[in-house]
Amino acid sequence: MERHRDRALPGTDRDAPTAGTGPRIGLAGFFLEADRFAAVTTAAHFAANLDVADAALLAELRAAAPRLLPDKLGFAEAMGASGPWAPVPLRMTLTYPGGPVERAWFDTFIGDVRARMAAAGPLDGVFVCLHGAAATTGEDDPDARFLETLRQAVGPRAPILAVVDRHTNVSARMCAALSGFVAYRTNPHVDLRERGALAARLMRTMLHEGAGEVVLEKLPMLPAGTDQPIAPGTPYHDLMEGAQARVDGVRGGPVLEVSLCDGFPLADCARCGFSVVVTARAGQRAAAEGVAREVAAAVWARRHDFLAPLTPLEVAVSAAVEAAE
Questions:
Q1: Number of domains in the chain
Q2: What is the pLDDT of residues 112-127, one digit of tens each?
Q3: What pTM, to 2 d.p., does this model score?
Q4: In a domain, 18, yes or no
Q5: What is the 3-state secondary structure (H, E, C) of the chain?
């Protein structure tokens, strides 16, 4: 977790936001990377790491040593720097990687989020912190159900933007509920604050122009963790460079962001797989679909480059023995 100095968020008051202070943006999150074969994640795991709502969530944003992930901090800072806004804290929960979460706990969590959305009143948009590779003991796509709950509450026109882990297992349901999709680009993940700031810029664009379009192209490949480096010359680096060349939103073009997501194999579910996700301006779905197909074709053409040679176990053991001798 990153640390930052104790200071008021730009564009907000230290007190709870009030009407007339700019667009009302809900803040929510559900963060779990689920290994299908690990022990079940319980409510106690979330409680021991982070599970805050309402004023407690807002206090975390303003804390000297916040426990929130840096993407939420980057989003809040960039929103404040770009003009007035009213953060509306809903609920944010996260825990370390583990097994599928208890279905009963997740059902209760969804009910609580639904109630908080109703109590919050009309929102102009929602920012979501999401890992994107969760599972429960009874379903494979709880991330989509979480996003669909938010979408049902705000209606079709309010922008919902999410920052997700690069190892998300993206589904069509997730994308259908979103207006903007921003994935980490680094591995290890050190760019969360910057990705949150990008989500804030996209939120401002969509508040002005209308909710964006999110398009998914799924590929039948799933690189192992050993096949996901990002250094120059690696397939991911080169493909990301090519993908970013298609982002023309800053020049007034239709494409605002392209994310390449490797996926998380240990989730062992149908939505596993390499994903190309394109975010475009309102009404520019056709442009997003074209770019998504082009980038996906480029990834597929280099699929064999994602196979990293590994040292056989017996060779590694022999080398270790020789080194010790």
A1: 1
A2: 999 999 999 999 999 9
A3: 0.90
A4: no
A5: CCCCCCCCCCCCCCCCCCCCCCCEEEEEEEECEECCCCCCECHHHHHHHEEEEHHHHHHHHCCCCCCCCHHHHHHHHHHHHCCCCEEEEEEEEECCCECCECHHHHHHHHHHHHHHHHHHCCCCEEEEEECCECCECCCCCHHHHHHHHHHHHHCCCCCEEEEECCCCCCCHHHHHHCCEEEECCCCCCCCHHHHHHHHHHHHHHHHHHCCCEEEEEEECCCCCHHHCCCCCCCHHHHHHHHHHCCCCHHHCCCEEEEEEECCCHHHCCCCCCEEEEEEECCCCHHHHHHHHHHHHHHHHHCHHHHCCCCCCHHHHHHHHHHHHC
